[in-house]
Amino acid sequence: MGTFLNPKADNDSDNQFLKICKNRVNGLFVDKTDFINETLDRFEMDNNLIAFTKPRRFGKTVTAQMLACYYSKGADCKAVFSGLKVAGYAGVKQINGQEKAITYEEYLNRRDVIYWDMNTINDDFKSYMSDKSLHVDYVDDIVDYLQYVTLLEIRQNREFEEKISKAPLIGRKSLKKALVATKTKFVLIMDEWDLIYREYRDNETLQKKFIDMLTGLFKATDGLNCFSLAYLTGILPIKKYNSESALNNFKEYNMLMPGKFAPYFGFTDEEVTELSRQTGCRISKELLKEWYEGYKIRLYDKDAGTSRDIDVYNPNSVISAISEGRCQSYWSNTSSNAEAIRLINMNYDGIKDDIISLISGGRILFDFESFNNDMTSIENKDQVFSLLVCLGYLGCYEEGDFLRSAYVPNREIRSALSSIVRKQPWYNAMPVIRRSEMLFQAIRSLDAAKTAEIIGDIHNSPYVSVIGYNKEEALVFCLISGLMWCAESSYDSFRELPAGKGFADLVFVPKSRPALPIMIIEFKRDYTAEDALNQIKEQDYAARYRKDGDEREVLLVGLNYSSETKEHHCLIEKM
What we know:
Blueprint: H1 16-22, H2 34-42, E1 49-53, H3 60-71, H4 78-81, E2 90-95, E3 98-103, E4 112-117, H5 118-130, H6 142-154, H7 158-165, H8 175-182, E5 186-191, H9 195-199, H10 204-218, H11 221-224, E6 227-234, E7 240-241, E8 244-245, E9 251-253, E10 267-268, H12 269-276, H13 285-292, E11 295-301, E12 306-313, H14 315-324, H15 334-346, H16 351-359, E13 364-367, H17 381-391, E14 395-398, E15 403-407, H18 411-422, H19 431-444, H20 448-459, H21 472-487, E16 491-499, E17 502-510, E18 518-525, H22 529-538, E19 554-562, E20 567-574
Parallel strand pairs: 1-6, 1-9, 4-5, 5-6, 18-19
Antiparallel strand pairs: 2-3, 7-8, 10-12, 11-12, 13-15, 14-15, 16-17, 17-18, 19-20
Helix pairs in contact: 1-3, 7-8, 19-20, 19-21, 20-21
């Protein structure tokens, strides 16, 4: 029992799931153990091969280690799972030819588990390659090394070693033959299964060798019979060859096609609501939603024949924000950002303009059917958007079988993408950037006519139509998207801000620079700009900024859209 075979799970082990369980005492715990129920329903069934892929920082490793804690003979976790959702499991299984009612205890810490953390294996392989004294004949690459170290540990089990030693032609890398020789059914859990396609992206020979190894384990009958359950997790769906999945007997769930597992791709709205109510949480549910929600994943109810969209939050960011007591971007993985930069700068079909439109609040249709689920065979904009969805930089709405509409899901991702775009040499030359600067300057100079004209241009841009220009919400969208590139780094923006005797539609408050004006904006549809401006004054929205000797400049902006004339009108006053 050790690293690869039957990993232990105790206070001394480096198990993220156990560490999170300890947070139950302070409320920072979301019970996702009912995911184990889904694997129990598939255990030793025809659908017992699962590939579950989602972006970095979305809990992939926690889920993998949770499954290891549950199944591994090397763990003693009854006390951990008692009282959690999995403890309520009740099912029926065919065992020794007879139907048997089972509880979650049926397989709890009773299975032989092979656990592969590919990040750790990759680090160990690099150390192995750098120290010639460790070298073993014919173990020359990470695929050889993976099989070698796993087989080495399996042979440390006396019972397995006796069976393996009697089998012919089992060498240092004959992992499948060794598993077959044990005559044991294993649970295999593989975290970051796609590492070789990401870290060794240009080594097609190694990639083929890796997928051939997995194919031998999971498609050949003798290999497949060695497993009661196999669970792969990573960022990328299983690699396609000639438009077919290399392991098409795995049931795949990913950000493009989540299937029934939508609630397990992150924290749900209900779960974040409960976290926000915990003692010590100093952040409102609304702010957590603005920053970290927005991944809308469609959940199908096969029995009822219905579907609904699940609002999913980035779990790592929610916990980090509550722990730190502030919402900010925790999306700072440099390797992930480097990949996004590479994809954007490919500029397929004008993707730079599309990314800026997406950051500004738009949506763009794409088709992911041709996506090969890797980072190298990118040939068009559809494949770029498909990869950005898998990486978590974009969300997507389901529009058809393979058709999706891409969008930027939340403020955290918008901040990360904005930061990336601002650092590119082409940034200042983009028309949308220039338009944002012009809008900001028009408001500051009290040029109401120019402000209305630019907002009209934004209204007529292709991506605004997706929200329906039939209510004040569309005006708010135009202003926010128009000012974003000038105001994002310098201002905090507030929707429906309590002020004076009511709620101001939109307020921009400088973060630190006193020379920048506060902007209070009221929107009307089919009234007048005068009505909008008068409401700011009558409701005294600026009252909160006249307290304590605050001498900052305040601009009052009234904006109206006429559905009859299709024109915008604006009035601006300085206090």
